[in-house]
Design the sequence.
């Protein structure tokens, strides 16, 4: 009977370690998912900004600006 009790005690430490490992894995997966979502949102805003820039350049070209002058203007130049 004493052997079965000692085996139980040694397994309980392993169980706690595995539980802690599982929690750490879950936490790191959650952090990775949040990071990927934030990257995706930043790419969406970049796409919108690029579209606005292209529209600005097209408008300035229609106003008989040269391409380089239109790009300079839309970048914030004079």
Sequence:
């Amino acid at each position: 009977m004493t052997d079965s009790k000692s085996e139980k005690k040694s397994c309980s430490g392993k169980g706690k370690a595995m539980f802690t490992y599982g929690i750490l894995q879950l936490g790191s997966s959650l952090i990775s998912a949040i990071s990927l979502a934030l990257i995706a949102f930043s790419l969406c805003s970049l796409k919108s900004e690029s579209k606005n820039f292209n529209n600005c350049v097209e408008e300035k070209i229609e106003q008989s600006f040269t391409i380089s002058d239109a790009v300079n203007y839309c970048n914030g130049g004079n």
User: Anything to note?
Assistant: Residues 2-62 form the longest helix (61 residues). The radius of gyration is 30 Å. Residues 2-74 form one domain.
